[in-house]
Input
Amino acid sequence: MKPNPARDLWTAIEPLHAVVYFAPEPAAAAKDVGLRGWWMGYFAGRAAPLGPIGPEPVTSMFFGFAPRMVERALPDAWSFASPADVVRTRVEAVEAALTRLLGPESVDELATLLEQAAAACQFDARPLAAAWSAVPRPDRPLARLWLATAVLREHRGDGHVLAAVAAGLTGLETTLSHVATGATAREQVQRARGWTDEEWSAATENLVERGLLDAEGLTPAGAEVRRTIEETTDLLAAAPLEALGPAGVDRVLELAVPLSRRIIDSGGVPIPNPMGATRP
Output
C-alpha cells in the first residue's frame, strides 16, 4: 500500500482527541457547568472557541448534522454557560479522562511535536481550526497534547468540508458516500447526525440520479468522487506534515500509536464510531 503520511497522522492521533466525545468526564463537566443534555454539550463544547455563536454557522461548519439537531442546542447553551467556561471545563475534563486512561505516561515530547505541527496549520477558510488555535495553551502536558490534537483534527476536518463542497456534495450526501464505502454503518451515523429516513432516502435518490450510487453501493463515478475528496483532504492537511518533516512524522507515529491503541483497547474510544476513526 502506498504510504499516506497525512492519513497516517490523523489515524494515529484521532483517538487521543476523540476521548472528548466518548469518555464520561467531558459529559459530566458539561452538565456541571450548566449545559443540558449530551448533544448540547457536544455542540457547545466543540464550537465554544468561536464565542456565543448561533445554529446556522455551526450547522455549516459541522457540515454533516441535520439543522434541527444544532437548533435544539444553540444558542440556548449560552444562556446556561459562557463559551469561556465551556472551553475551560472541557479541556480540564478531557485531561482528566486521558489521565485515567493513560496513567502516568510522559507525553511532553509528543505534545511538543504536535504543537509544532499545529503552529504550521494554515487557517484560511478553516474557522473551527482557527478558533481552537486561539485557545491559550495550558502548561500541563496532557492538556497541551489534547489541545494540539484539537487544532490538527479541526484543521483536517475543515479541509475535508472544503473538499466535499468542491466535489458538489452536501453534508448529508458526503455522509452517505462515506457510509457507502463501508467505513461505518448507516444505523450508527444516521442516528448520530439526526437525519430522518425520508431525508436519507431523498439524498440517496439524488446520488443515484447523479450516477454516484446504485444498489451495490458506490458506482465507479462515486468511488472517483470519494477518492478525489480524500486526496484533496490529505493535500489540504499537508502543512503540519511539512513542518514536522519525515523524521518528525515518524516520531509522532512512534509515540502516538501506542497511546491511541491503549485508549481504544481500554474502551475509551469505540471502534467503529461515527467519525470513522480506526485502531492505528
Q: What stands out?
A: The chain has 15 helices and two strands. The longest helix spans residues 238-265.
